[in-house]
Amino acid sequence: MTSVEERRPRALFAGASRRWVRLLPWGVAFVLCVALLPTTIIVLTADYGLGGGVTSALAVAQAAPLLLAVVRPLHAWYVVFAADVAGALALLTVDFQERLLWPFPPMEIVGYVGLCLALGLRERRRTLVLVWLATAGANVTLGFFAPHGSGARELLLTILGGATLLLAGALRERSEVQRRLVEQETISEAERGRRTLLEERARIARELHDVVAHHMSVITVQADTAEYRLDRLPPDVREEFTTIAATARESLGEMRRLLGVLRNEDAHGELVPQPGLAQIGQLVEATARAGGPVEFTSCEVEVPEAVGLSAYRIVQEALANVVRHAPGAATHVSLSVSRPDEQRGGEWDGQRLTVLVVNDPPPEPPAAPLEASGTGHGLVGMRERVRLVGGTLDAGPLPDGGFRVAARLPLTEKDFT
């Protein structure tokens, strides 16, 4: 059922977003059909002296297919082209004045030009060339049988039809190029967002490795040295500590092998401890030295290393966005702990660290506006880090032109689950 619907031709401008644009081809075709049908009958009968029966048949064959041209212009062209040639041959049987156009009267030219417009907006370049060659060939061939001698005006249909096909075909190809460009930009943006997300996940994995590896190393050292630090350990307890140390070393090795898959060829392991809450103050000072006033409010609290690392990276990315998008703007960074009695309705059972970064509008309007939605690639990394520790993130522009980033990170094991 779907494949049949996909093969079914669509009307011209059927994909337009505005209703009047979708109805425009039908309106034009209807007006041409209604106007040309009686006009053809009157002109062929009164001016050219053609019989009424033949005139009516030619008028219907030349005007009615214009409605079909909205959906199937090539099929309509077959009918109209044959009817126009037949009409030219029929006019050879009557005696009409030399001033009248032949082989194609004016109303036929008007209908044919409208049909060429529909063809150019739908068909490919090769088809348009063949249509024009058929038109020119028929026009030149009929010129040899001109009752009053051939002239330049007899080629009017070929000239106008070719110009219309060329113009409409150029418009169609330009529209097609623009559509493909928009599609490619959309795909590129989606791929760029996906790549950013994957890179951020790999970076988080590397940082978590350093955090977890530190604890695993401590466990290994404590288990290995237990028999030397503790007096008179029973043999079974000593064996248990040996097993714990071996398991910890094996787990650490597995983590390092897994990390090797995530690292790039040019990436090297970091040999310094991962930053946490204690380093946020240094980050704020560095940003202030870069040219923007930053106010920092901290709190004394012990947090898991994963939470401290996530908080540091969130502040780091938020401050980097301020420098990029709002240089010189006053910024406020605060760390606070919300307790159950401070939360509305007891929504959380444990403590949470609230990381808040708010910047005012820049002193001078930036060259590009602040992000109006959460589509920035920097926010992708923030959301990944918040989701990693089971927290929430609220980020967006402020009414006065500033920007606000608020992350709430759980501090207890219960909240992580």
Automatic annotation (TrEMBL):
Pfam families: HATPase_c, HisKA_3
Molecular-function GO term, any one: kinase activity
Histidine kinase/HSP90-like ATPase domain sequence ranges: 306-413
Enzyme class, broadest EC rank: transferase
Segments passing through the bilayer: 20-44, 50-69, 76-94, 100-121, 128-146
Catalytic activity: ATP + protein L-histidine = ADP + protein N-phospho-L-histidine
Database matches in InterPro entries: HATPase_C_sf, HATPase_dom, Sensor_HK_TwoCompSys, Sig_transdc_His_kin_sub3_dim/P
Record EC number: 2.7.13.3
Keywords for this protein: ATP-binding, Kinase, Membrane, Nucleotide-binding, Phosphoprotein, Transferase, Transmembrane, Transmembrane helix, Two-component regulatory system
PANTHER family reported for this sequence: NITRATE/NITRITE SENSOR PROTEIN NARX-RELATED, NITRATE_NITRITE SENSOR PROTEIN NARQ
Protein name: histidine kinase
Species annotation: Streptomyces spinosisporus
